[in-house]
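tool=predict chain=A
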Amino acid sequence: MASGVDQAVGMGLVGFSLLLFIYYTLWVIVLPFVDSDHVIHGYFLPREYSVILPGIAALLLVLFVGTFIAVVMWKNRKPKKTQ
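tool=predict ok
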């Protein structure tokens, strides 16, 4: 069973993910239908970043996963037997 600290960290991560999802959804789906002079546009980055930031995040994810796999494979390699 998870300890109280583990549960608190998990709930914090879930809460952060939910806020990020809501922010991105409003930014990409709702904001284009709101007038450009509305005050709500001040809380969001320019629309170009809605494509650039997830692309950078995806590249970083692939980089970190690839690095992790390379390190694990490097540590688990077996020396060649000499005859």
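The chain has a mean pLDDT of 91. The helical segments are 4-30, 49-75.
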